[in-house]
Amino acid sequence: MNNLIKASSTLLRRSAKKQVRYHHPSPFDPQTTKGWAAALKEAELPTTVHDAEVKRGLEIGLPGASSIEDKTIPTFSRGELPHFAGINTFMKAPYVENIHDVGNYDATVVGVPFDGGCTYRSGTRFGPQGIRRISALYTPYNYERGIDLREQMTLCDAGDVFTIPANLEKSFDQISNAIAHVASTGTFPIILGGDHSIGFPTVRGLASVTSKRIGIIHVDRHADIQEKDLDERMHTTPYFHATNLPNVRPENLVQIGIGGWQVPRAAVPNMVERNTNIFTMDDVEVMGIEKVAEMALERAWDGCDAVYLSYDIDSIEAAFVPGTGWPEPGGLLPREALKLVGLVAAEGLCGMEVVEVSPPYDHADITSLMALRIVVEALGSMVAHGTMGKAKDIFDKPFVPF
Ligand SMILES: [Mn+2]
């Protein structure tokens, strides 16, 4: 009997073994995945700031009702939770109403609600609101990177610049004023556009408070380097004017994703004459996003002391970003875009902007969500690589109002 059981179980084992199909190297150790390594990293993160937030929430928001079992829950929502509640600043960061206080934070969100530079669809004046709204969805923790922005950096939301809807040039002066002030305090400016015409006054603001040279990594489907469009400095023109600044040179302007059927011919002779650096989607496909990022960093940093990131959301395949002024199929896939931003930001940026989010044309906030993700990807990369705040010393000139 025993022998019979033994024999049949051996048979069973053999037939079971026969049916195994390995889709991975065998033997597979589940603890060799990056996913597992990321899980282990979480335990290394502190909870200090989180704990202080909970304590403060209970003090200022009243302890919860007696039937609430979780004693960290206050009566009034005063922190991250619940995600659907609270005042909708960027990632629930504190609203800093007094603009003289932004220097107390590592990074500052500045909204630039402006669409006076749009040449087709408008609505980017609602971009900062759209991005802030969906930012309520996010926690400050990133699983793969094993970082927690709440614990590892400080962030505030300074609200919006007072733009003048019917006047580009007055709006530009307001924007340069705002960004020059914010950068001069040493905080990292995160600018939420707004159409891409703001790309000139943002850089002009930064450049005015430094004696150093700034390179620009400009991710876009469009070249944005005409001198004028429709007789004005519209959103097709920022890099003509930005690269006229004495400390922002066209050889340090890197344009990634350019192409398709929307690049005005008027832009092209300027790119050629100024010898900018241009990568099309074909370049991305042939060389790969890592190589493009490496070359972009090399060119943008060449002879420069800092690099600024200008991210046009329309650089991403139109299917993912319907809420934008000039959607164009064939652009970056979201994973490529996020990878690119992470690689570029790892070296440390002196500021960044995300532009051309137009919530009135958006669906289910997906374009705003993508813009948010671009921002947190840059912040996460800088925190992970210890480069947050690296560029603040370049702002060595006093703020002189425009
Ligand atoms: Mn564009």
From TrEMBL:
Leader sequence residues: none
Domain of life: Eukaryota
InterPro entries recorded: Ureohydrolase, Ureohydrolase_dom_sf, Ureohydrolase_Mn_BS
GO biological process per UniProt: putrescine biosynthetic process from arginine, via agmatine
Keyword annotations of the record: Hydrolase, Metal-binding
Keyword Cytoplasm attached: no
A GO MF label: agmatinase activity
Family in the record: Belongs to the arginase family. Agmatinase subfamily.
Protein name: Agmatinase
Species in which this protein is naturally found: Cylindrotheca closterium
